[in-house]
Design brief:
Helix content is 53%, strand content 28%. With 156 residues, it is α+β, with helices and mostly antiparallel strands. The protein has one domain. Helix 1 packs antiparallel against helix 2 and helix 1 packs antiparallel against helix 3.
């Protein structure tokens, strides 16, 4: 492994995937959580009927229809963290300050699974560095042993 795969590449992988990537993901998750927290704490959980679903590149763009507190029917853009079909009813949070956007929070289990995947990737990123360092130590010990054997051969 130490032939083409040196300590420099292993260190880059460890730093990039083991440190920088988790920081970026955690920052992105925290930004999403602050938006979610705003909807959950300041919004009203409202039954919404899925009006239209447009799938682009595997991602859904959804609009829903719901009735506000005064009985008006409002068509809103939906931020849904699940796949839906037209006609389906979902419970989503609506902010009074932005009635034209509703939010359906992601499952807490999904969040923990994503955190787990990132943690496993971050830990696994250090394995090449450990292997290269260990291989270097083994190579160094082998060189020392060969040198000692050569010295012993001269002593005879």
């Amino acid at each position: 492994m130490s032939g083409n795969f040196g300590i420099g590449k292993a260190l880059l992988i460890a730093i990039g995937v083991g440190i920088i990537l988790p920081i970026v993901f955690i920052f992105a998750f925290r930004m999403g959580e602050s938006k979610e927290r705003n909807y959950v704490h300041n919004g009203v959980l409202t039954p919404c009927t899925v009006d239209t679903v447009l799938t682009v590149g595997g991602k859904q763009q959804v609009s829903v229809v719901y009735q506000n507190a005064s009985g008006q029917t409002i068509k809103a853009k939906a931020i849904l963290n699940k796949k839906v079909r037209a006609g389906e009813v979902v419970e989503a949070y609506v902010l009074a300050s932005d009635p034209y956007e509703v939010y359906y929070p992601a499952s807490p289990i999904l969040k923990w699974v994503l955190y787990g995947i990132i943690a496993v990737a971050a830990i696994a990123a250090w394995i090449p560095l450990i292997v290269v360092i260990r291989q270097g130590k083994i190579d160094k010990l082998a060189a020392q042993a060969r040198a000692m054997n050569k010295k012993n051969d001269w002593d005879i």
